[in-house]
Structures
1.
Amino acid sequence: MEQRRISGKGHWYHETQSSSSPTEVLPLVPEAAQVADRFLLNLTLPASLLAACERWLTPARALCDLFFPRAVPVNRLRTLSAYDRFSTALTVAQVCGVQRLCNHYAALLAPLPGPDSSRESNRRLAQITQYARQLASSPDVIDSKAQQELDEVGLTVYDIVTINQIIGFVGFQARVVAVFQALLGHPVRWLPGHHIPPHALIDESALNRDAWEPVVPGVEQRNASAQQLASLERWQTEPLLQQLTPVLCHEPAILDYTGEILVSGIHAAQQVDIPDEAVRRAVEQLTRSPDRFSAAQFTPLTDEGLPPAQAINLLTWSAFCGWLNRLKIAIGRGE
């Protein structure tokens, strides 16, 4: 997938084709690739606020490095290249419409060699892109056919676990960045030339714990590595990860950091006692249209007496729940 600079419009867009032309892969903001903080993308924030969020920010930053190393060795079990990972991240960032994030992933993707121009490679990339766009914005359309199509283009179980985690994580990252920008009072900005439809709300009844079951095979204990067994034992006792753990522990390092975000205190935000209407409006706007989340939704929370750090944690928790719910939709089904 390439980013083309369109003369007269001053923006790039994302395509599911590769190109050999070196003049067509310049990102709009090349310096966006060079950030010290790969999760918050160098937003300037008060030290006290960062300290209050440090317990979940630390594993989130670690996941950036784990998902997106600059070079990724591929083999028959793990076929996702660096290009696959960054193009998926850019697709999700575009769907979320958070411009800072789009600039970042576009700048990282642009210099990478794309896949060959064979029909099979183009079909594979197109399928991954379509799946990422659907799971990020319209998770209700993900069904057994969508899951089967990933298998048909050659993604392995390890690939499927990783790609779904990347989609969930980048959606989470986009919403967290949007929340911090709202705290700072940054003006709302949309990608020029792009209309971004609101994301579909997830039907919670489809995720009923009693009816849900995985469709992706889990790790078999008799064949598991020591790290997989340790992750399995650790996270199967956590109620919100219990059902997902056998599948997610195919990639135990990713699961461990995901779990650490969960247990860092974020979920205590559920107990915050402020008027439901202010929370409902903020969470719904962040869930459906992160690109339009602004101080107009954030300020009512602090006006009700909620400290900024608690407001951040409350909204981060809602974003994390969206990540977990997408994982359940992606790797399982409910009745």
2.
Amino acid sequence: MDMLDATVTATAPSPPVVVDDAALARAAAAGDTRAYERIYRRHSPRLYALLWRLCGGNAARAEDVLQETFIQAWRKLPQFRFESALATWLHRLAVNTALMELRGATFESLDIGESGMDLLAEMADTPRCHATGMDLERALLTLPPRARAVLVLHDIEGWKHQEIAVELQMAVGSSKAQLHRARSLLRTRLGDAR
């Protein structure tokens, strides 16, 4: 090996070290802010997408809930028992935070607001479902908040009606009725877009 090869070999970058969530969570629980930042960067995009749907397309509200979720996570990480994956724990924390926020704002008084209307206007230029002429995300935003929350939790996130009923403080029958209402409204709205 000549001198040039030795120099190139010595300065070659090492591959990035992949750290799993459990190691990051342990480090963050011990106060490592860089580990916590990696947790945030790794999980915030998916959580934001969920929160955006639960908040009816209101980006400001979804961002506020995401921030509150990660504040709570920072406080609660030392008590995290690793009985589930960190992603699952963060997901549940985000949903609970969103539902608490939505309950506090009284579900029935919520609407998509000005930012939601701006978003709908922007989405008019997005590709549409060929079968319906309206994309599902846009139709989802038009649902009443309680029906939308039940639909997102049940059909998208896979929750059972019992879990939804507990989180939304409603009867199981009400959860089922809201899901039926949401599906019916979606069918109508998607059908009307043809």
3.
Amino acid sequence: MNTVRPLILIILSTLLMCCSGGQKKDKGPQGEVIPVKDSSYLFNGTDLDGWEITNFGPQGPVYVSGGEIILGVGEGCTGITWKKEFPSVNYKVTLEAKRVTGNDFFCGMTFPAGIDPCSLIVGGWGGTVVGLSSINGRDASENETTTYMVFDRDKWYRICLIVKSDTIRALIDDKVVVDFARGNKILSIRPEVELSRPFGIASWNTTAALKNIRVERIEK
């Protein structure tokens, strides 16, 4: 009888691990349970390891809370820049972002497209513009990738960016919002986000939250 009970406990523990996918979990600073993510995730859910708070100058506060990165409202850009290795082409970035307060972009993702930089703007120019900045010197508000979306405050949006040598695609909640064929067109970024290179995420006069930031290499 004494040997049966420990055996039952072992079986129950094994079943619980199977049901959770065998994923280990850590406790955050407030005691919340946070899954340990694999190496494709750029944010571990607990701190800014691998990131640097971008020194834009008049930026707002940046901190981690409840498994989210908070970009506080500042006078202009507030953001983070990835300081470790990052691919230059043939990769996919996925993340979730939301606008907490403010009326401008809550995800300005600066990224490499080969040797050139570019930015995906989500919710800019008064809150609704989505597009790439810049193409042949024209901003996200005035080039062929310009589109408009209404973004609710405090709602998470799933953002996906796919960068190949000849194309850049972006999806929001699985809807294609950018489908750009590069050709001979010149990509660049605005001076305001120069410090975000090679890969960084910023908001503009807006409090934003980010989570589940992930980069995966893809086939050509």
4.
Amino acid sequence: MSARFYADIALVPGTTVQLPPDAARHVQVLRLQPGDALTLFNGRGDGLPGSEGEFGATVARMGRSEVEVIVGAYTPTAREAGRAIHLAVGMPANERMDWLVEKAAELGAASIQPLMSERSVLRLKGERADKKISHWRGVAVAACEQCGRSRVPLIHEVASLADWLKGIGDAATDGSRLLLSLREGSRPLAQAVPGRGALTFLSGPEGGLGPAEEAAAIACGFSPVTLGPRVLRAETAPLACLSLLTLGAAA
């Protein structure tokens, strides 16, 4: 199987294109040579060929920092989840957010919203936040290149939970909203998930969301759900939801 690369450019069979810098750098690291085969995808989701598939390609020229390839035949794929699942997560600290982004991309998340809440250890703003978002987007791209996905999940800019909830308000067009919670009376996930339609899961950082934050989320249409009697880590809980819905019978 040929090496697989994400290229956020128009891909048309029979044309010669210059790869974006990140993809070109990876091709050079692998020491591919003119005539070598590779696979490209752009995952734009625009309904055109390439939005849900991939292209064969051949290296045409290797420059010092540029790589030109000849785009080959398009092959449709069907590797996306059966529904759009969005994660809004209180960012776990250290390298755990990297791991969460990587595994969420592999498991089929449509988007990830990094959030800061009252119990958050990791707090980002300004240039530091921009660098982290750029890094996480690169992590998501690499995960999709490896696992075969044709759409890279959208990684949103970092936001505070309060601002994010204010922004989504009571919009009714983004599917069902579920809050991962330990509060008494939370419904089991399997009972709360509708048969179809987009889903947004909101989960907290280490220590979870505070009572006032959970109340604010519920006021915005989030229904509290539980994954069972065990308390999962901040980076594990949203991935457990994804696994159940994209790898299980509910996908």
